[in-house]
Design goal:
69% helix
Length: 183
């Protein structure tokens, strides 16, 4: 190494670095909004309901992939460590994964506008419709619990990435209340 090379500081590579927390937040917000819209099929119409459902299925796969390390780590330690704090969240997430899987698969099987025509008998179609509705109603409770368990994460990252408020800054930005005594 020459003296000139040693004197010139190395520049950091400007390679795109993915902020997975920010990606998770925006993906979760999109999923939450799509979930609310999906629950009211008459609001979107059947065609859009089915298309949004497919989009949610893809987004849920991305969501699962982004959380794969956490899922795998908890799965490995689930029976080793009986008292870890992630146990309830893990069980809820497994229930939610299975429920969403049922909703998506039954939704594809009963689809009327996607042109799949899978040749399902009338009796099976009614069973799949019932499972789809039952799973959708159950998902409302599961998603509500999921949001409740992760509320601190949602709130802190919403402040950070959407409202650009850093921790501690929210209190400093509020004006102090000054009491004035009337004479």
């Amino acid at each position: 190494m020459t003296a000139v090379q040693a004197a010139v500081p190395k520049q950091k590579s400007k390679v795109f670095k993915l902020n997975t927390t920010k990606l998770n937040l925006f993906l979760d917000i999109g999923l939450a909004l799509a979930f609310v819209v999906e629950l009211e099929r008459h609001f979107t119409g059947l065609r859009n309901h089915e298309l949004i459902g497919l989009g949610m299925g893809i987004a849920l796969i991305v969501h699962f992939v982004l959380h794969w390390k956490w899922s795998w780590g908890i799965t490995k330690s689930f029976f080793r460590n009986l008292f870890h704090t992630s146990r309830l969240s893990y069980i809820l997430n497994i229930l939610l994964l299975v429920d969403m899987g049922v909703i998506i698969v039954t939704g594809i099987l009963i689809s009327e506008t996607l042109g799949l025509n899978l040749g399902i008998s009338r009796r099976s179609e009614q069973t799949f419709k019932s499972l789809h509705v039952l799973g959708s109603n159950f998902s409302l409770m599961l998603v509500g619990l999921h949001v409740a368990i992760h509320w601190k994460w949602i709130l802190s990252n919403t402040k950070k990435y959407i409202f650009r408020i850093k921790s501690g800054q929210a209190k400093a930005a509020q004006p102090a209340f000054i009491a004035v005594k009337e004479v």
